[in-house]
C-alpha cells in the first residue's frame, strides 16, 4: 500500500497490515486488534467466491444481495463477540466505522448490509452516529447546514436513519444552527454533537463528555441503567499538561514520504507521547532525505541548504522505515551527522539498516557497503534479503507482526529503557535484515548489537555504546506506544535530546502516567473496533473515514 495514497500502513500483533484508523483505536482505547477487525471489499468478495467454489450455494446465482450483504453481516457478528481488551467474555458494545462518503459506489454493499442489520436487530440494539461537515464561511463566519441536510437525506434514502449527528466544524455550533439541523434532519437537539477545533487531540473525549455524548448513545441503546460516569481524570490532566508545554524539543524527521504527515502517523504520535512526560513541546522538522544528497546541491541549492540547516538545528534525528532506494543516501548522511556530532538518533526498520551501512562505510572502511535492496551486486552486503521472503509476490510476504527480541546485555540503554527485561515483544514489517555473516566484523569495530531474535542470528537492536543515544531497531516500536504508556525507545530519544536520559536511566523510566479508557461508562466494558454489539446484536455504527472496521 502506497503511503502517499493510504497514509501509514499500520501493523497489528497478528501481522495484519491495516488502515491507520485502527491505530487510532488501539491508541485511544489501549486495546489489541486483529486483522479480522478490518473488513475490506476484497476480503468479503474473496470469502463469497471461496464459498461458491466449494459449492456452498449449490449452484445458485451469486449476487450482491443477499450473498455479499449476508457475508458482511456474518463477519460483523463473528468478530464483534471477540474481546480485544484482554478481558474474558464477549464485549458489551461493539463499534463499527463505516468509511467513505454517503453516495460512494464502493460502500454501497456495506450500507445495504448495515441497513438490513439494523432492521433485523431492532431498536435499542443499533445506534447510528453520522459524522458530517458544517463548513464555516471565512468571510462572514456563517455556519452552513446544507451539506449535513443533504448527507442525512442521502443516508435515509439508502435505508439508514441516524440517531446521533456528530457535526465537525472549525467553531462551536450556534444554538440556532443546531435547532435548524434538528428540524431538517429529524434528530433531537440533545443528540447533535458539535466537534470543533481544540488545542490538542486529548481534549476530544472531554469535549464529547461535556456535551453528554455518552448519555445520548446510552439512551439509544437502553443502557442508562448499567452505566456510570466516564472516568476522564487522567485524560484531563494530560490534556491540560499538553497545553502548558512551551519549551520546544526539535526532532528532524528524515524520510521519503515527508510530503504527507499521515505516512508517519504512529511515529508522530509516539513522539508526542514521549514529549509530554519530558515536559517539552514537540516540534517536527520535516526533511526530505533526498534533499540532503549532493545531487540536490547541483539541482536545487536552496532545498539542499534548507535541509542541512534543519538537520543541524535539531535536538534529535529520527529516520523512520521505508522501501525503495530514493533518498537512501540522504538518510545515510543524516545517520553519519548524528554519529559524528553526538546528536541523539533513532533509526526504525530501514533507519536501523542505513545506520549499519553508514558505520560499515565510515568506520570499518567498506566504502561500497550497501543493502542488496539498493545494490544487488555489492561486494559488502551489510543488509540482505531474508531467506524466507518471496521475491515474486509482494503482498503479505514480509516478516510481519509481533516478534520477540532478546537483550544481549543488561547494561545497554535499550534494555534499561525497557525496564531491564530479558526480552520484549514488538511489531515488525520488513523483507531485509542485517547480514549475520558481517555482525562480528561490525562489532569488532565498535558497533553493538544489543538485541537479537530467538535464533541469535537476526539482529533486532543496534547501539553505539560511546554515544549519548544512537539506537537502531529492526522493529516498529511506534505501533505499541500509547498516550499513558510511551514507547521506551521514543522516550529515550526525547529524554536524550532534552538532557534527561541519565536521570531516567538512574532512577528508572517513569511508570505509566495515565490512560483512562473512560470514553464509555459501561461496567466490565469490552471494546471491539467497528460496530456496537450487545449480546450478539449490533448497537452502533460510526460513519466516517475509509474502509469498515469492526
UniProtKB/TrEMBL annotation:
Enzyme Commission no: 6.3.4.2
Cell inner membrane is among the record's keywords: no
InterPro entries attached to this UniProt entry: Class_I_gatase-like, CTP_synthase, CTP_synthase_N, GATASE, GATase1_CTP_Synthase, P-loop_NTPase
Domain Glutamine amidotransferase, residue spans: 261-494
Residue ranges constituting the CTP synthase N-terminal domain according to the UniProt record: 1-223
One annotated GO biological process: pyrimidine nucleobase biosynthetic process
SUPFAM superfamilies from the UniProt entry: Class I glutamine amidotransferase-like, P-loop containing nucleoside triphosphate hydrolases
Keywords annotated in UniProt: ATP-binding, Glutamine amidotransferase, Ligase, Nucleotide-binding, Pyrimidine biosynthesis
Catalytic reactions on record: UTP + L-glutamine + ATP + H2O = CTP + L-glutamate + ADP + phosphate + 2 H(+)
Highest taxon in the source lineage: Eukaryota
Pfam family, one: GATase
Pathway: Pyrimidine metabolism; CTP biosynthesis via de novo pathway; CTP from UDP: step 2/2
Ligase is among the record's keywords: yes
Gene3D superfamilies to which the protein is assigned, alphabetical: 3.40.50.880, P-loop containing nucleotide triphosphate hydrolases
GO molecular function terms attached to this record: ATP binding; CTP synthase activity; identical protein binding
Function text: Catalyzes the ATP-dependent amination of UTP to CTP with either L-glutamine or ammonia as the source of nitrogen.
Annotated family: Belongs to the CTP synthase family.
NCBIfam families in the record: PRK05380.1 (NF003792), PyrG (TIGR00337)
Identification of the protein by name: CTP synthase
Chain's gene name: LOC104219222
Amino acid at each position: 500500500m502506497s503511503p502517499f495514497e493510504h497514509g501509514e500502513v499500520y501493523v497489528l500483533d497478528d501481522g495484519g497490515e491495516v488502515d491507520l484508523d485502527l491505530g487510532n483505536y488501539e491508541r485511544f482505547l489501549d486495546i489489541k486488534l486483529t486483522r479480522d477487525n478490518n473488513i475490506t471489499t476484497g476480503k468479503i468478495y474473496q470469502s463469497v467466491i471461496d464459498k461458491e467454489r466449494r459449492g456452498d450455494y449449490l449452484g445458485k446465482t451469486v449476487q450482491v444481495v443477499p450473498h455479499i450483504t449476508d457475508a458482511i453481516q456474518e463477519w460483523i457478528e463473528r468478530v464483534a463477540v471477540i474481546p480485544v481488551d484482554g478481558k474474558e467474555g464477549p464485549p458489551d458494545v461493539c463499534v463499527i466505522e463505516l468509511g467513505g462518503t454517503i453516495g460512494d459506489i464502493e460502500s454501497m454493499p456495506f450500507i445495504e448490509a448495515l441497513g438490513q442489520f439494523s432492521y433485523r436487530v431492532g431498536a435499542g440494539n443499533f445506534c447510528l452516529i453520522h459524522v458530517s461537515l458544517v463548513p464555516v464561511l471565512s468571510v462572514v463566519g456563517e455556519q452552513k447546514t446544507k451539506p449535513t441536510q443533504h448527507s442525512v437525506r442521502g443516508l435515509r434514502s439508502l435505508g439508514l436513519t441516524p440517531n446521533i449527528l456528530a457535526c465537525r466544524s472549525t467553531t462551536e455550533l450556534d444554538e440556532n444552527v443546531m435547532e435548524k439541523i434538528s428540524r431538517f434532519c429529524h434528530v433531537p437537539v440533545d443528540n447533535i454533537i458539535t466537534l470543533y477545533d481544540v488545542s490538542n487531540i486529548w481534549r476530544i473525549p472531554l469535549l464529547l463528555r461535556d456535551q453528554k455524548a455518552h448519555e445520548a448513545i446510552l439512551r439509544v441503546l437502553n443502557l442508562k441503567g448499567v452505566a456510570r460516569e466516564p472516568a476522564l481524570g487522567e485524560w484531563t490532566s494530560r490534556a491540560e499538561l499538553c497545553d502548558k508545554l512551551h519549551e520546544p524539543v526539535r526532532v528532524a524527521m528524515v524520510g521519503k514520504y515527508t510530503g504527507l504527515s499521515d505516512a508517519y502517523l504512529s511515529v508522530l504520535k509516539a513522539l508526542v507521547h514521549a514529549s509530554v512526560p519530558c515536559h517539552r513541546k514537540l516540534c517536527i522538522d520535516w526533511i526530505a532525505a533526498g534533499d540532503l544528497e549532493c545531487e540536490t546541491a547541483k539541482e536545487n541549492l536552496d532545498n539542499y541548504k534548507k535541509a542541512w540547516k534543519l538537520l543541524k538545528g535539531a535536538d534529535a534525528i529520527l529516520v523512520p522505515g521505508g522501501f525503495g532506494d530514493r533518498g537512501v543516501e540522504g538518510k545515510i548522511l543524516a545517520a553519519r551527522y548524528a554519529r559524528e556530532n553526538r546528536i541523539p538518533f533513532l533509526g526504525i526498520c530501514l533507519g536501523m539498516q542505513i545506520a549499519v551501512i553508514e558505520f560499515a562505510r565510515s568506520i570499518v572502511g567498506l566504502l561500497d557497503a550497501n543493502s542488496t535492496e539498493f545494490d544487488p551486486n555489492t561486494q559488502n552486503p551489510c543488509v540482505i534479503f531474508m531467506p524466507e521472503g518471496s521475491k515474486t509476490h509482494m503482498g503479505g510476504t514480509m516478516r510481519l507482526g509481533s516478534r520477540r527480541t532478546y537483550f544481549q546485555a543488561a547494561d545497554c540503554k535499550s534494555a534499561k529503557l525497557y525496564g531491564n527485561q530479558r526480552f520484549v515483544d514488538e511489531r515488525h514489517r520488513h523483507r531485509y535484515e542485517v547480514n549475520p555473516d558481517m555482525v562480528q566484523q561490525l562489532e569488532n569495530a565498535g558497533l553493538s548489537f544489543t538485541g537479537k531474535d530467538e535464533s541469535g542470528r537476526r539482529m533486532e537492536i543496534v547501539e553505539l555504546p560511546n554515544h549519548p543515544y544512537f539506537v537502531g531497531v529492526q522493529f516498529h516500536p511506534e505501533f505499541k506506544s500509547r498516550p499513558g504508556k510511551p514507547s521506551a525507545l521514543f522516550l529515550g530519544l526525547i529524554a536524550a535530546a532534552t538532557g534527561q536520559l541519565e536521570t531516567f536511566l538512574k532512577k528508572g523510566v517513569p511508570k505509566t502516567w495515565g490512560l483512562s479508557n473512560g470514553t464509555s461508562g459501561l461496567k466490565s466494558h469490552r471494546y471491539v473496533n467497528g460496530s456496537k454489539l450487545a449480546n450478539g446484536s449490533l448497537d452502533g455504527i460510526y460513519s466516517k473515514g475509509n474502509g469498515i472496521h469492526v
